[in-house]
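To: structure desk
From: M.T.
Subject: fold request, one chain
Message: Could you run this one when you get a chance? Sequence is below, nothing fancy, just the single chain.
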Amino acid sequence: MKPTHLFYVPLLLPALRSSEARAEVESQRYDTSYQAYQEEADRIRVTSYYLRGAIDINADTSFRFQYLRDAISGSSPTGALPVQTELPFLAEIDDIRTGFLAALAHQFGDHRLELEASLSDESDYHSTGLSLNDAWELNRKNTTLSFGINCLLDLVDVPNLRNQPQDKTSLDFFTGSSQIIDKNTVVTANLTLGTNSGYLNDPYKGLQRTEHDFYDEDGDGIDEDHAYLSSLILLFQRSPIVQLLFPEVKVLGTAAAADAVKLTIATVVGLGAVNVGSNASLSFTIKNTGTANLTGLTLTKDGTNAADFTVTANAVAPVSGPGGTTTFTVQFAPSATGAKTAALHLANNDSDESPFDLTLTGTAIAPLVPFEVWMTANGVPPGQTGPQQMPQHDGVPNLLKFAFNLDPTKPDCRLLSMDAGGTAGLPCAACVGGVLRLEFIRRKASTHPGITYTPQCGSDLTGWTVFTATETVTPIGTTDWERVVVNGPVGETRCFGRVQVLQVP
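Reply: Done. Structure tokens follow.
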């Protein structure tokens, strides 16, 4: 039997106190960092220094910057063969890059606009960039739409082109959206379109070739073969790429209690504990990491408890590659208590992962009692739904709010109006003709089993007996409620009354 919860008349309400914590926002933030990369035998060494800062100019405007200085030293293959030639096998590298980025952001209503500029300079590459980005916040900041444009103007110093810098221009357009589903789930989609023009080569692609000269060096009338090595710098402009196209399926699981994780074949996916009569759903994202379209997506299920798991939203094919995605959803709706398991199979045209098999598990627990259903339906947060808990700190436990039709989402300790047809409130008492009269509302036993109401009286606050007088019960319209009036004993010089509310299995 569950604990008894009592209501006393009169009711003493505790005083409520609240406190507020205030945090002071930092208006300036700075940090520095150092990175070092070293390969064996001192072949390549890279050191980097960073200085970053952010300044809040006012409540709507902020400025940030980054300064970078890195150096690379060592040697790199030239493309020549490692033999005795005039062309060295390794070329010495020694270069320093300096970069600077600055961005100014301002809030215009629901829009946050940011202008960013960048500079980068090294011995053979010079880059200047400018971008403009807008973040539009909607739906109480639960939805964000992003738009942006970025332009890079580069100068490349190319060897063997008479040291004439070559231009390169890059222009990118960006749009994206981010939607907060709940406290653990965020859905994001982005699209970037870019175009490049100008010098698109790698100026350091080279190879070595053997050339032959035939001439008579010693004067014997016979031409000798004089072979020597020479280097040739090759410039590849928009060279065609030949590649084999294959689809590659990856499945990502997204749960309310966890971030998306990469799943492998035979992964066990749990859908948690669910009350009989209720359900829980889990969405999966299929991502094509290959280069050909992913097709033939078919979901089937089998296993001991396959009937308790249902695919409520199917995947849509084809899925373009690389990077294309589609989703499907599985619902767990158990019909009886106990541990449940089933197998899910995803057929596709991936040569080595078809079918993609997953094991589904879940635990079915007893159905919710009416009190718990009511708490959940009213949005009371988990951890605050206990019968004796008082999340609103108003002196009225959750079970009494359920019993007397009070609001569990806010402070509510009102009394029932006597003889006025009230439909919500704590029990009220009055002295009528020298007799204690107790009046309260209750849920009908036929529609809300598991809760009992017992009016009690006593001459003090230590001993209680059940009212012996007959109750007068009046239905409240067509609702699940009824109004109860009961009188205490006659001839008492002092009488106290209460309604005992008991939650029973």
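Reply (cont.): Confidence is low (pLDDT under 50) at residues 1-25, 205-210, 226-246, 254-262. Let me know if you need anything else for the meeting.
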